[in-house]
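Ticket #4471: structure export looks truncated?
Reporter: QA, pipeline team
Priority: medium

Steps to reproduce: submit the single chain below to the structure queue and open the exported record.
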Amino acid sequence: MPAHGCAGSAGKRGDRSLPDKKSIWVQQPRADLNFGQHNPETEKTGQEGPLCVRSAARSPLREWPARSHRSLSPSPLQPLGPLASLSAVRFRSRPEPPPAPGTESEQRALKNLASRLAKLRVSLERLSTSSILARNLKTAAQVLSSSSIGLDFTRTATTLESTEEVNTTPTSFSPFGPSFSGTSTSLPTIGGTYDGAQGDDTLTFKAQDNFNNPDTKTARIQVYDGLGTLIDTLDFQNVAADTPLTLSNGLTLSLSTGSVVKNETFQVSVFATLGSSVDPDKPFNGTRNNDPNLESGLSVSAGSFEVNGITINVLDTDTINTLLSKITSSAAGVTATFDSGTETVLLTQKTLGSQSQVVLANDTSGFLASTKLNGATQILGKDPDDAELISTVSALSGISTGNFSINGVSISVDTSIDSLNDVIDRINSSAAGVTATFSESQDKLDIKSNSPSADLVLSNGSSGFFSGVNITPGTFKPKAGVDPSKARTFEAPDTVRRRLLEVGRELDALFQDKFKGISNEVVEDLRGQLRDSISAAFESILEDTERSTLRSGFGIAFSFSDTAQGIFDFDLRKFNRSVSEKFNQLTNFLFRDELYLQPGGLIPSLIGKLKDLEADIADTLGAASTGLVVDVMA
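Actual output as written to the record:
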């Protein structure tokens, strides 16, 4: 290692040992410069020893030999050599006046570099200043209900349901489409309404003649009860196919085209104690055993009806359930279901509360009548208590019709027509200069002044409004300041974004530009120290800060893989989202010591490093005119 280098400095970034140096003469040292500690060992021998004077960051711009405020013993002088570049500098006392300390262009180059560093530092300081103004803002006067008001926030939906069972017939029979026991091809169909005359029984239908339906000759069917007693004789002579004939008990029988063989039979079960049930999955035009069993006298055909103004088209082949699915999937905003337990149709508003309703109209299909929705009365949904009339909410019984005032502005309340939300809206639209909000989670009313410096004055007036919502009326003062950790945005976010971009451009320039008259080693050493400061700021959010690209997650990133293209990357969209959603983490990364009085923020770290680098250059330029020997790298 050279005689004037710092031991142990090689092998690490920023801890670079010095190459051979040549010397030039300079003037007597200034007594006010603090260059570092002196070496007691060299004091004994009367010779100077090397000492590294470092900045607070991890790597120095250059290495300095030891200096002391006391007079230093003269050391052997080296011959004057050419000043290749101002870089690593050592200082020795010299009793004789020196020649000039290098060329004027080299001096200008170093001053230009110092000016560039100072410009970047000022931009960083301006950014820091514009970003911490929120700490000095006042908190507007604000008052919150002292305890929960006791409101019920349950919401229910408006419903409309069939007025009764879709088929209310108290008796029933089965099957609807029996078959003859032999080779008859005519198909019988049972219909009508059983009057219960035979109680719960099984009826037998027996052909008394051979005939082809329809037929012009005698074509009789006799009906027997379960005891074999004849109860009816039906004659289909000259009766058109599928024309029903009525039994004495209210049932009907029709025969399709086809043959009927004498003595062949079929049976039908009748129930006086078991009511009829509709089948919601059978088509409206279904026959015999595919009949949906709507109430006698009611039917559904092709047509349409409206739900909340939305037209629902009906086909003959639809079923109750397919139509309900059409309603649910439409834009009517209603869920339609069939309850098999109650045999009713239920229409439920998808939006909770009393304002969203279910309105039916313009039925040309018979569906609404057949499902007993005609004339049904909707049951309005329940609103939370803050949306209900004040007079109907027991928790707001302390409020009377009258008025109250905020900041001298009178506001009326009528408990018979106003809800709490109505009153809140009236407050916010008044000239009182406040914002009122109600928090369901807290069950409290919050009133905050729109001015950070104005008092908030509340009076119950004749309504007792504030007492009714657990707020004690009176005068409330703004607070003197705000905890910056509770800040949610910058006071001037556009200014912060603009100054961040300015800082980025200047950092890019420092890594892109060539500095004529200054050695590449010095420039790269300076850039390395800036990179170290940037990396240090990422240590709180990244495990590996030695990677070539450092991404903060806040829209701010640095890439050192190709510095000729610049190092700063700014994602405006991600930055704006971070301001909205991760403000405290963002400010902690950027300005940690400014907002939280702790070290580690990117901006303060860079400012501190730049101050150190500027001081180093100032010392170098200053030493060149104050009587020291300056050694520079060849």
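Status: closed, not a bug. The export was complete when the record was re-opened. Leaving a note from the reviewer for reference: The two ends are 15 Å apart (CA to CA).
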